[in-house]
Amino acid sequence: MLELQNVTKVFKPRRRPSVTAVDNVSLKVSPREFLVITGRSGCGKTSLLNVMAGLARPTSGKVFIDGMDIWSLDDRQLSALRKEKIGFMFQVPSLIPVLNIVENVMVPTMFTTGRRRLNAYDRAKKALADVGLSHKMESFPRQLSGGEEKRAIIARAIVDEPPSLVADEPTANLDELTEKEIMALLQRIHQAGTTIVLVTHHPSLIGYGTRHLTMSDGKLPE
Ligand SMILES: Nc1ncnc2c1ncn2[C@@H]1O[C@H](COP(=O)(O)OP(=O)(O)OP(=O)(O)O)[C@@H](O)[C@H]1O
Ligand SMILES: [Mg+2]
Is residue 75 part of a domain? Predict the structure, then answer.
């Protein structure tokens, strides 16, 4: 369960006017939900996801993951919680160019402890099979098409089998058919029991979720 209480995120660039990217947002995401948040470019979607997933500290307000007030934790506790609970698909391209695909998918396992460190290679292979990318395991990121790159990024996000996944524009720059394939893949991951929060400016993705909200000017409807 993910909960935001009156979360605000203000950016204060030096010698520039400050920007309220997230404006007093309260939100509850239930387990097994597939929440789609749409809104135009600049309305605050990435900022909201980053605060929700423990990557950026809110200016005010609270974020709870399974009842834990995540911004009251110290850095080590927070990164441990993040690794345990959340998989990420970032908006910006984020595969490491000098690692091949299976190595890229293994990266998150290197920062975990306990059972999640075990069999990293086999689990990465399985994640790649799950996203239909077994045949590109030994390829490098620059050798992948846009859709294949997204699949690799999904595999990396699910390799540790997190209970929830946040996806920021997972279908950016894809053709219509490939977009459908990627969304079908996310639906499958959702049906297997993963909670998903997806943000996008593509209204075509609304129908894939179990709930839809529109963000505008940093605000979400209550
Ligand atoms: N690090 C930052 N410093 C200053 N302003 C920022 C920073 N990050 C985001 N912003 C501003 O916050 C607002 C929201 O940005 P954000 O990236 O969250 O929007 P978005 O909805 O994800 O847009 P897009 O659909 O283009 O990805 C924008 O006005 C942006 O310029
Ligand atoms: Mg964004």
Answer: no
Q: What is the DSSP letter of 65?
A: E
**Residue 22 in contact with ligand 1 by CB distance below 6 A:** no
Domain that holds residue 38: 29-57+83-214
CA of residue 93 to ligand 2 center, whole Å: 12
CATH number for 123: 3.40.50.300
On whether residue 66 sits in a domain, the answer given is: no
In the chain the first and final C-alpha atoms are separated, in Å, by 17
Give the chain's domain count. 1
Q: Does 146 score more than 80 pLDDT? A: yes
Tokens of 111: 């920062």
Whether residue 116 is predicted with pLDDT greater than 70 in this model: the reply is no
In a domain, 15, yes or no: no
Spacing, Cα 6 to ligand 1 middle (Å) = 19
Place of tokens 């097994």: 32
Lowest-confidence range among 45-49, 83-87, 204-208, 216-220? 83-87
Question: Cα 209–47–190 angle (5° rounding)?
Answer: 25
Point out the ligand nearest to the CA of residue 17.
1
